[in-house]
Write a structure and sequence with these properties.
The chain is α+β, with helices and mostly antiparallel strands. It folds into four domains: about 270 residues, Rossmann fold, CATH 3.40.50.620; about 110 residues, Methionyl-trna Synthetase, domain 2; about 120 residues, Isoleucyl-tRNA Synthetase, Domain 1; about 100 residues, Nucleic acid-binding proteins (OB fold (Dihydrolipoamide Acetyltransferase, E2P)), CATH 2.40.50.140. The strands form eight sheets. Strands 18, 19, 20, 21, 24 and 27 form a six-stranded antiparallel beta sheet that branches. The chain has a five-stranded parallel beta sheet with strand order 3-2-1-13-14, with helices on both faces. A hairpin with an 8-residue loop joins strand 6 and strand 7. Helix 5 runs antiparallel to helix 6 and helix 16 packs antiparallel against helix 17.
Length: about 675
């Protein structure tokens, strides 16, 4: 028998600056399924999470609402917890990083790092908002890209040409907080000396990460690890750095410490030895679930700070990919940026749990929530193959046999069918390969349904003298159903609970080999309803309404400059005449190896063909959908030599960037090469 394990499991902390959406839910569903499996298997598990509360965005959002940051995070914390409860996420403790436990632990880690010489200071120049009297994080500065000239780009990278740069390199820079032109100002900052942990990290990540993620981090080692800035200047919402007057921990120092803080809060409530979980030689296991967007912080920065402070290290870091909807990044304007609470208004939480599980394996692949496929799969699998197995046989047992099952199954091979997949399913759960779990269980469901179809209890019920056979057929079908629901109980906890009540028994991995014979069941009640197209449409409509409501509320820091970008300075008609805009057709679209945001387009301008690199990859995941589309091209833009090749022009698009990019169309009838006036 496998020894009982003590395991501490975490999900990444959602930021206390906005609602939970379906992209967040992927991770929390993934970790919850794993935890429910561990508990069902008999392991001792503590499963925690918390809201990530600190930083400039929280401070500014609270100010925009005329409330304190503490009031904001309290309000958001209640909303986040309600969303997770709605999806049956079974956290033992849901806390927040703005708490005494986190302050104590963060300061302890910092002091130990400081005493060992891992903290250094140096004066740096930063952009400063002279109106708001605050230093500006990179994402709170916008301006013209110094590389390609694209307007209104963030202070750290250009979403048009993918260039990276310092905020001080931006042209025509402005603060998104006040709209003022930033000034340079010197400030003393505190840095964690990450390069000193280079050798340790290179070895460590090979043990805790999947190989593909370990290989991805090699890029950082090849570039050379840099000292990590862990301080921010007042005003800032966070914890003050010990022995300083106006310096605060940068949110990424205290955020992962929030895992320990939530654990400590839980242990104090339940008289558990917290130190046994965090001490350097702890025999407890610690598993993190994260998205690949925060791989750097959790796999390099976080373990290095723990190592330097003589704390225990994570045993495994499980990484998942991004969520797209209908093949594209979630879009507010299309109604596919779906909040958890909006989803729950229209659909059962277990529909999403099942669909995500059917797509998840141990690799960090991106997952697409195709709403048509989602509806079809839930209706086919859960309703048509699983629940239907019980609904079409239980009534015979209730009506003809007073709810009593037969003393045996019709076939001798029933238990062999059920137990043949047990170890495969348990191993798949252990490896977070939920896709394989669903595959194995559906194969068993298909076998069970073939058995029912072949024996047709609705026909047998009409034949005299066949009562015993009818009872055995239905008994076998319901025992198949019991096994299927048991196998899926970590994925479908509410359906499992309702099925256990109907079957009048406990559903557990331990009693999979104990069939229900001569057993009284309860009257069957509908367990699951089909998804209708109208529900999906209503959810999308409500998601668009969410966007309108968010715009109506002046709560986000960028509303200072309104939802629209500020107008550029005036030009004359002669200035405009310098632009030569032409109609063109995209005849080829390709991914650009090594580029995060670029697609390589071949344009037909009628009189010639051009190659253009466009920063539209996030908005157009399926690049082949662009082929044959007419666009508007800046045809007289000076060609630019990029590392991927020569770009001769620019396609016109609207939107702020990222996934919110919309190529401009022309009316039908326009021919390639025509000039746009």
């Amino acid at each position: 028998m496998t020894p009982k394990r003590s395991i501490f499991v975490t999900s990444a902390l959602p930021y206390a600056n906005g609602p939970i959406h379906l992209g967040h839910m992927l991770e929390h569903i993934q970790s919850d399924i794993f935890v429910r499996y561990l508990r069902a298997k008999g392991d001792d598990v503590i499963y925690v999470c918390a809201d990530d509360c600190h930083g400039t965005p929280v401070m500014l959002k609270a100010a925009a609402q005329n409330i304190t940051p503490e009031q904001l995070i309290e309000q958001v914390g209640i909303e986040h917890k309600a969303d997770f409860d709605g999806f049956f996420i079974s956290y033992d403790n849901y806390h927040k990083t703005h708490c005494n436990e986190n302050n104590e632990l963060s300061c302890d880690i910092y002091k130990k790092l400081y005493d060992k010489g891992y903290i250094v200071t140096k004066t740096i120049s930063q952009l400063y908002d002279p109106v708001k009297n605050m230093f500006l994080p990179d994402r709170f500065v916008k301006g013209t890209c110094p590389k390609c000239g694209a307007a209104d780009q963030y202070g750290d990278n250009c979403e048009v040409c993918s260039a990276t740069y310092n905020p001080t390199d931006l042209k025509d820079a402005y603060s998104t907080v006040s709209g003022a032109k930033p000034i340079l100002k010197d400030s003393l900052h505190y840095f964690f000396d990450l390069p000193k942990f280079n050798d340790f990290l290179q070895s460590y990540i090979k043990d805790v990460l999947p190989q593909e993620m370990s290989n991805k981090l090699q890029e950082w080692f090849d570039q050379g690890l840099k000292q990590w800035d862990i301080s921010r200047d007042a005003p800032y919402f966070g914890f003050k750095i010990p022995n300083t007057e106006d310096k605060y921990f940068y949110v990424w120092l205290d955020a992962p410490v929030g895992y320990f803080a939530s654990l400590k809060n839980y242990c104090a409530k339940h008289n558990i030895d917290f130190d046994s979980y965090i001490k350097k030689d702890s025999d407890k296991l610690m598993y993190h679930f994260i998205g690949k967007d925060i791989l750097y912080f959790h796999s390099l920065f976080w373990p290095a700070t723990l190592k330097g402070a003589d704390y225990r290290l994570p045993n495994k870091i499980f990484v998942h990919g991004y969520v797209t909807v209908n093949g594209a990044k979630m879009s507010k304007s299309k109604g596919t940026f779906i909040q958890a609470k909006t989803y729950l208004k229209h659909l059962k939480p277990e529909c999403l749990r099942y669909y995500f599980a059917s797509k998840l394996n141990s690799q960090a692949v991106d997952l697409d929530l195709s709403l048509d496929d989602f509806m079809a799969k839930v209706n086919s699998d859960i309703v048509g193959k699983i629940v239907n197995l019980a609904s079409r046989t239980a009534s015979f047992i209730t009506k003809k046999f007073d709810g009593i099952l037969a003393d045996k199954a019709l076939d001798d091979n029933m238990m062999e069918d059920i137990l043949s997949i047990k170890q495969i399913v348990l191993d798949a759960y252990e490896n977070r390969n939920y896709q394989e779990v669903i595959k194995q269980v559906l194969a068993l469901a298909d076998k069970a349904n073939r058995f029912v179809d072949n024996n047709a209890p609705w026909v047998i019920a009409k034949q005299e003298g066949q009562e015993q056979k009818l009872q055995m057929i239905c008994t076998q079908a319901l025992n198949y159903f019991k096994a299927i629901i048991t196998y899926l109980s970590p994925v479908l906890p509410k359906l499992s609970e309702d099925s256990a009540e109907f079957l009048n028994t406990e559903l557990s991995f331990d009693n999979l080999d104990k069939p229900l014979f001569k057993h009284k069941i309860n009257k069957f009640k509908p367990l699951f309803a089909r998804i209708e197209k109208e529900q999906i449409e209503a959810m999308i409509a409500d998601s668009k309404q969410d966007l309108q409501q968010a715009k109506a509320q002046n709560t986000v820091q960028e509303t200072k400059t309104s939802e629209y970008e500020p107008l550029a300075s005036e030009i004359t008609i002669d200035d405009f005449a310098k632009l030569d805009l032409r109609v063109a057709t995209i005849i080829e679209a390709k991914q650009v190896e090594g580029a995060k945001k670029l697609l390589q387009l071949t344009l037909d301008l009628g009189f010639e063909q051009r190659q253009v690199f466009a920063g539209i990859k996030e908005a157009y995941k399926d690049e082949q959908s662009l082929v044959g589309r007419q666009v508007i091209c800046v045809a007289n833009l000076k060609p630019r030599q990029m590392k991927f090749g020569l770009s001769s022009g620019m396609v016109m698009a609207a939107g702020p960037g990222g996934s919110e990019i919309f190529l401009l169309n022309v009316d039908s009838g326009a021919k390639n090469g025509m000039r746009v006036h």
